[in-house]
């Protein structure tokens, strides 16, 4: 099992469009990728336009498969122009019993 | 539903002790707090001694109840001397369907 925690910042005024793309992506991932156990965009309180994405994969292979999915690429293309900075990604390994 | 994402940094050499306290805390939370839907300490790859804690609560009330739990306070007391910096906490609200 592996977690990915990302931070995405969007340009002011693009939040609604970004969240629509995010909602569609979450729907696609949940429908098509059973090995993605958690895939949630969230808004960080007190930090306008900054999103925390929390993801959990059953295995390293599930993460690699996700990264190659057409629906992810399509969403990244739509999100690209909305971003105010490069996404920050962390891979995290569970401590103790996951 | 509300997520909490935290960052905890520990003093070099205290990782094993910290992880033992974390493992015990996760066990207590999972056993005693049914409204805590996710409570996972993780190690961030590439950042020695830095932990990402990912938590999900069924409601704001469940989060407040958690913050007052004796087992959390006991764990924080044990962890306190091991920390290299103040913990960073974020509250995050799900975008779209959680």
TrEMBL record, chains A, B:
<dbReference type="GO" id="GO:0004497">
    <property type="term" value="F:monooxygenase activity"/>
</dbReference>
<dbReference type="Pfam" id="PF03992">
    <property type="entry name" value="ABM"/>
</dbReference>
<dbReference type="InterPro" id="IPR007138">
    <property type="entry name" value="ABM_dom"/>
</dbReference>
<dbReference type="InterPro" id="IPR011008">
    <property type="entry name" value="Dimeric_a/b-barrel"/>
</dbReference>
<feature type="domain" description="ABM">
    <location>
        <begin position="2"/>
        <end position="91"/>
    </location>
</feature>
<keyword id="KW-0503">Monooxygenase</keyword>
<dbReference type="InterPro" id="IPR050744">
    <property type="entry name" value="AI-2_Isomerase_LsrG"/>
</dbReference>
<protein>
    <submittedName>
        <fullName>Antibiotic biosynthesis monooxygenase</fullName>
    </submittedName>
</protein>
<keyword id="KW-0560">Oxidoreductase</keyword>
């Amino acid at each position: 099992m592996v977690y990915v925690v990302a931070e995405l910042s969007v340009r002011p005024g693009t939040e609604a469009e970004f969240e629509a793309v995010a909602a569609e992506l979450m729907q696609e991932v949940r429908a098509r990728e059973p090995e993605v156990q958690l895939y949630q965009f969230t808004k960080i309180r007190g930090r306008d336009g900054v999103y925390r994405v929390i993801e959990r994969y059953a295995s390293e292979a599930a993460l690699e498969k996700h990264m190659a999915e057409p629906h992810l690429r399509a969403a990244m293309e739509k999100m690209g122009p909305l971003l105010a900075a490069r996404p920050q990604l962390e891979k995290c390994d569970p401590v103790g019993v996951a």
